[in-house]
Write a structure and sequence with these properties.
mainly beta, seven-stranded mixed beta sheet, elongated
Length: 121
């Protein structure tokens, strides 16, 4: 069984920074693409950023130049460094991972439980 556990959310003032972490636990799998999504209150979930196992990244236009996604494959962890935060970045942030079972080579989509990020003065 694979679990994704997020940490690092909280309350920050506009212009501030936060770093989110998401660690995958379990065995018998390898991780393909990892990413962060967010769901502002009353809105649908949206892509924030993704990173491939080789390190290729993709960002939503709204966060380019402010957010940086990275990963540590040895630690099975993905990070999201968020700088110059704006009130419109307020949302629940979810970690996502494409998991490939080493037993049957099937791929599965896993999600973390979500962590609240609030940007407010």
């Amino acid at each position: 069984q694979v679990q994704l556990v997020e940490s690092g959310g909280g309350l920050v003032q506009p212009g501030g920074s936060l770093r989110l972490s998401c660690a995958a636990s379990g065995s018998g799998f390898r991780i393909d693409v990892m990413g962060w999504y967010r769901r502002p209150s009353g809105q649908q979930r949206e892509l924030v950023a993704t990173i491939s196992s080789g390190g290729s990244t993709n960002y939503a236009d709204s966060v380019k130049g402010r957010f940086t996604i990275s990963r540590d494959n040895a630690k099975k962890t993905v990070y999201l460094q968020m700088n110059s935060l704006k009130p419109e970045d307020t949302a629940v942030y979810f970690c996502n991972a494409g998991i490939i079972s080493t037993m049957n080579l099937r791929d599965y989509d896993y999600w973390g439980q979500g962590t609240q990020v609030t940007v407010s003065s």
